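Field reference: sequence -> structure
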Amino acid sequence: METKEIRENMELTVEEFIRKQISEYSAKLDERLSSCANDIDKKINIGCEPKNRA
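Structure field:
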């Protein structure tokens, strides 16, 4: 392989790696945000429930 071809292949590999890392990090953030949103929803719902009258 020529040096130019090797360099292009390395750049593609690095770009693919970065894209994969960003995708994985994005998925983790989505999961955390969803979890936080669920926690907030639960707290709001608990605060808004009518009190039982016995």
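Note: Helices lie at 3-48.
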